[in-house]
Amino acid sequence: MKKKKITKKTPTRVHAFRCTDEVWSQLKTLAKECGISLNRYLTEAGLKHHPRQRLTKEEVDALNSLVYARTDLIKITSVLSKKTEEEKLKLFRTEKFMTWWIRSSAELIQHWYSIEENISSPVLTKEKKEP
Q1: Distance CA 10, CA 4 (A)
Q2: pTM score, two decimals?
């Protein structure tokens, strides 16, 4: 008979620390607000990375509405870029307004990219479904 190969898992260590019940409940609350386990929260905090609080449902909805609005502006800008100058003038009536609108929409799109980047990178925006 052949011997079975036994693969060992990466060893982990258990560490204990002392704290008051008040501190323990604060740590559990902070971990829950961040949407991570207490173990993960303590590990992140110990590595000098302080997890941020998860977005509330209202904040997630607001962020998603920004994404949809940005998408709409991108689509409009795309359609306008395919139009001739004469067609654009017919739509906007004056060249000054047309130029202002196109420049402003481009600035808004860039601003929304930066908002989304700053909010969503360290924070989970989608709600996690528990099995």
Answers
A1: 19
A2: 0.41
**Residue 17, token pair as written in the block:** 């620390």
Q: How far apart are the first and last CA of the chain?
A: 42
Residue with tokens 């409009």: 76
Contact between 106 and 77 under an 8 Å Cβ cutoff? The reply is yes
One digit per residue, the tens of pLDDT, for the chain of length 131 reads 677 777 777 777 877 888 899 999 999 998 888 888 888 888 888 877 766 777 777 777 777 777 777 787 788 778 778 888 788 777 777 777 777 877 887 887 777 777 766 665 444 444 444 44
Q: Minimal CA–CA distance to 32: which of 23, 24, 41, 22?
A: 41
Q: What is the DSSP letter of 74?
A: H
